[in-house]
Amino acid sequence: MEVRFAMHPSQFKTLTTEQIRKEFLIETLFEYGKINMVYTHVDRVIVGGAVPTVEALVLEDGKEIGAQYFLERREIGIINIGSKGYVVADGQKFELDKKDGLYVGMSTKKLEFGSDDPSNPAKFYFVSTPAHKQYPTEKIDIKQTEATHLGSLSESNERTIYKYIHPDGVKSCQLVMGMTILEPNNVWNTMPCHLHDRRMEVYFYFDMPEDAFVLHLMGEPQETRHIIVRNEQAVISPSWSIHSGVGTKNYTFIWAMAGENQSYSDVNPVPMKDLK
């Protein structure tokens, strides 16, 4: 588990491209037969990826979280972006096709990831946040999630937003999580952009070919920076930063939030004229 610390926006302004990437970009989440994780001190969120092959992978606790087991005081949201697989939570097995999700509540003692076909494995992307209340573990079928169609081709942002974990759907202590799928020939996300002072966010981009990328924008609205994000990479976005992007072609991204509240609409819009 890699550990990263929080940063003040005044320090962010002084960073080079290499330093920005080191602090905020998560480049390697998926490796065959491994679980990779990044612990950020921004709201103590853990971002991870698991690719089980021949043997199932068990999510272990570590000294970084100071618990007897991983979910002793945490909850977790999981979305499979690979081939068919399964997650076993305290003996209960959940089958997950591509883009199906799973919420696992606090106090679950054992969590295992497995693939139906080791030669064509599942890829489990997950985000874990601290929790103080236990909510039921629940599978999230993408076909049964709340879906909202937004944007237009003229604005290059026609997309469908799927809400997986949120107050009006699968409930959690503080985690909010979902997926946005852009239609072909659409490339912009979250523009006009916004801030949300009471929540951090993580964006995970995927379903891109090897030679494609997203130009992810971050920083304070009056002094923005960018990160080139490739397929299956994630960006940590502190509450003071915008989080928007434009791709070389259409793509899909998973968004996850943690912080003071779970209100999806609790945002501070940034007028387009104020961006610099």
TrEMBL record:
<dbReference type="Pfam" id="PF04962">
    <property type="entry name" value="KduI"/>
</dbReference>
<dbReference type="InterPro" id="IPR027449">
    <property type="entry name" value="KduI_N"/>
</dbReference>
<keyword id="KW-0479">Metal-binding</keyword>
<dbReference type="GO" id="GO:0008697">
    <property type="term" value="F:4-deoxy-L-threo-5-hexosulose-uronate ketol-isomerase activity"/>
</dbReference>
<feature type="binding site">
    <location>
        <position position="201"/>
    </location>
    <ligand>
        <name>Zn(2+)</name>
    </ligand>
</feature>
<dbReference type="GO" id="GO:0042840">
    <property type="term" value="P:D-glucuronate catabolic process"/>
</dbReference>
<comment type="function">
    <text>Catalyzes the isomerization of 5-dehydro-4-deoxy-D-glucuronate to 3-deoxy-D-glycero-2,5-hexodiulosonate.</text>
</comment>
<feature type="binding site">
    <location>
        <position position="196"/>
    </location>
    <ligand>
        <name>Zn(2+)</name>
    </ligand>
</feature>
<dbReference type="GO" id="GO:0019698">
    <property type="term" value="P:D-galacturonate catabolic process"/>
</dbReference>
<dbReference type="InterPro" id="IPR021120">
    <property type="entry name" value="KduI/IolB_isomerase"/>
</dbReference>
<feature type="binding site">
    <location>
        <position position="194"/>
    </location>
    <ligand>
        <name>Zn(2+)</name>
    </ligand>
</feature>
<comment type="pathway">
    <text>Glycan metabolism; pectin degradation; 2-dehydro-3-deoxy-D-gluconate from pectin: step 4/5.</text>
</comment>
<protein>
    <recommendedName>
        <fullName>4-deoxy-L-threo-5-hexosulose-uronate ketol-isomerase</fullName>
        <ecNumber>5.3.1.17</ecNumber>
    </recommendedName>
</protein>
<dbReference type="InterPro" id="IPR007045">
    <property type="entry name" value="KduI"/>
</dbReference>
<keyword id="KW-0862">Zinc</keyword>
<dbReference type="InterPro" id="IPR014710">
    <property type="entry name" value="RmlC-like_jellyroll"/>
</dbReference>
<dbReference type="GO" id="GO:0008270">
    <property type="term" value="F:zinc ion binding"/>
</dbReference>
<comment type="similarity">
    <text>Belongs to the KduI family.</text>
</comment>
<feature type="binding site">
    <location>
        <position position="243"/>
    </location>
    <ligand>
        <name>Zn(2+)</name>
    </ligand>
</feature>
<dbReference type="GO" id="GO:0045490">
    <property type="term" value="P:pectin catabolic process"/>
</dbReference>
<dbReference type="InterPro" id="IPR011051">
    <property type="entry name" value="RmlC_Cupin_sf"/>
</dbReference>
<keyword id="KW-0413">Isomerase</keyword>
